Amino acid sequence: MKKSKIIPPEVPMQNSSYHSTDPDDKTMDPVTREYEIIDITEHGVEKTWVEVSVEDSINLILNGTRVASLTLTPKDLICYAYGYCICEGLVSSIHDISDVSIEPPNIRVTVSEPAFDVTSGNTEIRSSGCVGVKTTWESLTAPMSEGLFVELKTIFDATVKVHHLAKTWRITGGTHCSVILDEHGEIKSAMEDMGRHNSVDKAVGKALLDGVDLSRCFMVCTGRLPAGMVAKAYRAGIPLLVSNTSPFSTGICLARQVNMTLAGFARPPRMMIYSAPDRIIIPESLLQ
Fold first, then answer.
1. CA atoms of 107 and 81, how far apart (whole Å)
2. Smallest Cα–Cα separation from 135: which of 173, 86, 181?
3. Tens digit of each residue's pLDDT (9 = 90 or more) over 202-243
4. Contact indicator for 274, 263 with CB cutoff of 8 Å
5. HSE of 22 in the Cβ direction (CA atoms, 13 Å)?
6. pLDDT digit string (tens) for 174-191?
7. What are the beta bridge partners of residue 242?
8. 3-class SS string, the chain
9. How far apart are CA 248 and CA 47, in angstroms?
10. CA-CA distance, 181 to 220, in Å (whole number)?
11. CA-derived radius of gyration, the chain
């Protein structure tokens, strides 16, 4: 893989003052803005200032062809590019990606062998609100690898970690967070974004760039789990997916189809497991 690079824009990206020239600089990418508001509570009415999540628009250009246009939080865009290409099945390995260049409002990705023809112009509207290449989850049938087993307590502990790691969410209430952990609960990657799909892409991209074996990991995320979210975890090779809220019927269907462990409403001490429960080690005391 070539070194990814960021080209600073001559003008700001739409809706933001994004200007970072360093992909590792976490301080220069403004992800919140302050607004003066009127706050109404049971104690009365007052003016105050609040921080709000920033929304930006980007185009993902693959080998010269625009394959997606979407909105996201303008941060960790290199990780996003790698993760999106993997999670949407554009490439089978990050080693197929030779270059990533951030040229706001575009992310340009060069790959050696796209998984399918992206020049056909066949697009669809995604549940995350983006226009992207048309991929289908119905064709995903190969079962996920066995061998990963995670203690129930480890998963519950991870859900607590998500809350502490979601710094922008605690400030604004306007982001989602995805965290990838190994079977012992060690954090391998954690990313926030205004979109739940984007946070998964960023977390996966960060983990893969760090050389993490995702087949030995599980992911805890915020937000609902339709088939699109499950498909992202599947293509990344993550066999256990957990959310603090609900799945959709399509998400459950796909998870059962590929033998992925899918759990929702994970809020200690409760959790609902919708598929492949054997990967979660439940204490004997709860089975009696």
1. 7
2. 86
3. 999 999 999 999 999 999 999 999 999 999 999 999 999 999
4. yes
5. 5
6. 899 999 999 999 999 999
7. 220, 263
8. CCCCEECCCCCCCCCCCCCCCCCCCCCCCCCEEEEEEEEEECCEEEEEEEEEECCEEEEEEECCEEEEEEEECCCCHHHHHHHHHHHCCCCCCHHHEEEEEEECCEEEEEECCCCCCCCCCCEEECCCCCEEECCCCCCCCCCCCCCCCEEHHHHHHHHHHHHHHCHHHHHHCCCEEEEEEECCCCEEEEEEECCHHHHHHHHHHHHHHCCCCHHHEEEEECCCECHHHHHHHHHHCCCEEEECCCECHHHHHHHHHCCCEEEEEEECCEEEEEECHHHEECCHHHHC
9. 40
10. 8
11. 19
What's the token pair of residue 188?
Answer: 């391998």
Instruction: Compute the distance between CA of residue 47 and CA of residue 152 in angstroms, rounded to an integer.
Output: 45
Pair 277, 265: CB distance under 8 Å: no
Nearest to 108 by CA among 65, 56, 55: 65
Q: How many CB atoms lie within 10 A of CB 224?
A: 15
Amino acid identity for residue 282 in this structure:
I
Residue 188 near residue 279, CB atoms below 8 Å: no
Reference 125, options 68, 182, 193, 41; nearest CA is 68
- C-alpha to C-alpha distances, 67 to 76, 78, 80, 86, nearest whole angstrom: 19, 16, 14, 14
Q: What would the pLDDT profile of 102-118 be if each residue is shown by its tens digit?
A: 999 999 999 998 888 77
Q: Please list the active-site residues.
A: 130
Looking at residue 46, its pLDDT comes to 94
Tokens of 97: 């990606």
